Amino acid sequence: MFANHIHIKPRLACLAGLILAGCAVNPANPESEVATPRPVTETIVSLERAQITSPNGRISLELTSANGQPAYAVTLDGAEIVAPSRLGLRFAEGADLDEGLIITAVTEASADETWEQPWGERRLVRDEHNELLIALRDADGGTHGYDLRVRAFDSGVGFRYEVPDTGPRAVVDEITRFNVDGDATAWWTPAGEFNRLEYTYKTTPVSEVPRANTPLTLRLEDGTHLAIHEAALVNYAGMWIDQRRGGELEADLAPRHDGVKARLDGAFVTPWRVIQIADDAAGLANGTDIYLNLNEPNKLGDVSYFTPGKYVGIWWGMHIGTYTWGSGPEHGATTENTKDYIDFAAENGFSGVLVEGWNVGWDGDWFNNGDLFRFGEPYPDFDIEELGRYAAERGVELIGHHETSGNITNYENQMEDAYALYEANGIHTVKTGYVADGSDLKLVDEDGFARYTWHDSQERVEHDIRVLEAAHRHQIAINAHEPARDTGLRRTYPNAVSREGARGMEFNAWGTPPNTVEHQAILPFTRMLAGPFDFTPGIFDLMPNGEEDQNRVPSTLAKQLALYVTIYSPIQMAADLPENYAAHPDAFQFIRDVPTDWEESITLQGEVGDFVVTARQERGGQDWYLGAVTDEYERKVDLDLDFLTPGLTYRAEMYLDGPGADWDTNPYSIRIESQEVTSEDSLGFWMAAGGGAAIRFAAAAE
Q: Which of 296, 400, 407, 478 has its CA 20 to 30 A from that of 126?
């Protein structure tokens, strides 16, 4: 860990902004803000409210407990952005934790620390926050209650419940509310539906959101942007957002197979409830370190077995009907075909080759036959030992694939042996899949009965941790598809390198409907707030089913290049067939050049659903890369280049929409040109409807 400054100052506080009854000062220093701690067994001292402010002083959260009912409110520059909102937990048995509680003690702390990621959107992450630990106890003088830990950052606030040990608990409801302006604009996908997180985004007033996935992104009337999400989801249910009444939103926990939301034994903490806050959309995208900083540090240790990089794969061909997952004459995962992909990867500097459909279980209705998958048994036409040897010889690694069809128990029963097989053949990254309806993840209990749970349930969350820990024992990183949502846990488990968790490229091949033209202009401000997304960009045959088919890629060629910058993942797929790259070698050069690991990342401009402009600096180098995408409208962008390193000259290698470009009528028109620039220059470019721009700023040798 790299730390340039750490300052932590815990104390029981008589804080500015706190109105306290019976707060004692240090007699040796009457002006000190040190209170005498009072054990909860003594006479309870009631504090009327507690308030915490962000380091820059702009964001404030105030906690009150009027009539014994805890509630919080949030302001930005003194203006209320979250109105007083209830807090609490309810259980199947025993006393609930939502009323009859008062503030009895407040402990203050602050921190300013910089730590280094093994890989990521930026190498160094600064964690600067103020913290309150607020004790809420029985108003009648008992010990019943909980602590609320609150942290305020310049990019938002996070809080979590810390509940003492009172034996086994079954959470049936969480009364965490987010009371916002019902007329604010919301970008959202429906939660608790069959297709998990994979829906097109809707844009509506908040008051028209029924139940939504998080991150839920909002724009207030004055332009302030909020995002409601969670951090450090461990041993608990994933959070949906439910509309109680206009603008009154409440946490809704994904249920376990038995209908309970979470089963906990002993003391427990919930995930952090996070409200990101920014002046504009770009600020929201630049404030995502809050999720990482609310997670625990790396607990796995050395994860150098994972190296960020680009990969190709036997994948898109199945979606467009060129190959099949199952065995037979069109089987994609053959030894011969895989060697061709290995050769292509080696020739173009790619580090990996994903192969899907290599193992027994894909024949027939694989969506519903999760019991039949065998993760250590290749089809006869796939020689995994020979391919591991051949890939190593060419300087490439195979990327493994485990589709479970949502059968958690079948996977866990084979997991150790499956990872050992991969480890023995030089495979260090595995793409997992959980294709099943949203409530149909299959568990087999100790009596042999099948039970079914949600993709966001506590049972799935606990399964994912077991997967990461088992994979780490075999030096394997995980890229999960059909996942539980990302909550910054990659800081704690840095072998959780990427995941799906939204509509990816494959919906353009067969989705009904396919992705919208604005989809990639929404993602950076919604799904991408949560973390890396294995979107699988880089389709060059934009109409694989023919010009008249509704399923096509709603994009220009330049936009496909831009996605390698605007959508972050430490592993990026060149998703199309090799022959389609051969048809556009000049455009393909950008995919060959663009890295996947970054020193720094900055969203320069953008509006949710309209456009985004993102710049990233290559980790360990001086080069910068820029990506910009727009929605169904053409757009002119003008940029100051002051993000470039002062004093250096760069060659801007620009891949731009060409004359007459349009995603619908002329998607292949591309213009490739270059010019010299410095940090003192500005740059303008045009994006076609459904178009984009990709630029490499290559630093000249000094």
A: 478
